[in-house]
Amino acid sequence: MVDQYSLLMRGAGGQMLMNRRTFLAGTGGLALAALATGCQRAASGDLRLAMVANSVPAQLLRAFQQRPDQGSGVAVTPQESLLELYDLLQRWHSQPEGAGLPPVADWVSLSDYWLAPAIRQGLVQPVNVAELSQWSNLAAVWPDLVRRTAEGMPSAEGSIWAVPYRWSHLVLLYDPTRLTDRAELTAWADLLRPELARRVILPDHPRLVLGLAQKALGASANGEDPAAVAGLDTFLADLHQQVRAYDSSRYLEALIVGDATAVVGWSDDVLPLLKQYRNLTVAVPAEGTLLSAQLWVQPEPAPPPSSQGQNWLDFCLEADFAVQLAIFGQGMSPRLWGVGPGQLPEPLQQPSEIVLSPETADQSEFLLPLNAEAEDRYGSLWETMRS
Prior knowledge:
Keywords: Periplasm, Signal, Transport. GO terms for molecular function: polyamine binding. By secondary structure, this protein is α/β, with parallel strands linked by helices. It has two domains: 4-167 and 292-340, Periplasmic binding protein-like II (D-Maltodextrin-Binding Protein, domain 2, 3-Layer(aba) Sandwich), CATH 3.40.190; 170-290 and 369-386, D-Maltodextrin-Binding Protein, domain 2, CATH 3.40.190. The protein is built from 14 helices and 13 strands. The chain has helices spanning 4-8, 28-35, 58-65, 82-94, 115-120, 141-146, 206-216, 232-242, 251-256, 267-276, 307-316, 319-329, 358-362, 372-386, and strands spanning 47-52, 74-79, 107-111, 124-125, 147-148, 159-160, 163-174, 200-202, 243-246, 262-266, 281-283, 290-299, 365-366. The strands form two sheets. Strands 1, 2, 3, 4, 7, 8, 9, 10, 11, 12 and 13 form an eleven-stranded mixed beta sheet that branches. The two termini are 14 Å apart.
């Protein structure tokens, strides 16, 4: 298997990057292709977005274009992965007028985990949220996530560097028919059950695996010295014996064809699958899980946002956007943080086991940047576990 950890290290100044796949919903990808006019053909007044295909469903892009206060269209530069978007930010930074590059986008979609290296490398610039009418409607967790120093570290004194528009959480997905007495998996420690030996697929990412292990033991996934967590070495050694593969791209296929009994994956990847494969079961461990958000960032070479650019950010924070993102993209908007299961849009309510309850959300964490010494500790622990 290709070492994705090594592949994703490039261009991040040593910061480990996370490989996320976004599922296409229905025919939305075809509609998006029509909107992706190829930036060379986009009108000069168009709002330019660069994002993973369908991270904002085409229906929402059209809804924005049809608003009476919009005087021009939306041009999309779709990319296959978040890694390609990060690479695009780097290329715009080093050669903004380079041959073969699309024009610099007004807003680029970026994972929260990649925000720190993007800030440190000077690839993005702070966002002025003072003019956003919807910003004050967000729960405190969101400004806290994107308020950073010039080194990319969270700080109450920092600037706002991004605006979130969707998020997801890690879940346990498994086939109960392959378990003894169809016993439920409800906690991260359940991955250590003997019947799951060599039947588990975990993300090919050190912070995710080490993080869920720390959550299983009641510790933070962002501790600077994971080795100080009591019992972690033993837990990781036992967990590694359960693993069939570390895989961030084809883990769902492995479960479907029977090569694995349980996998750990992202809720927005898993939800469409659960609606198709009724034999699968999902769980969100009550001890807390790990979170990931997709953000809008402004490339460093981009000019100050136009009124249309500011309107786009407000649009992505509206309650209507949250409902339609759930319907057409089966995604969670920041406006839905802390909302009880019964108050979610209907497409996100079932199965109820995938819902991140407010109580579990309080125990869950985004992966935050670490100092160099802490990164080395995590890297060393990961290598020890894998060997």
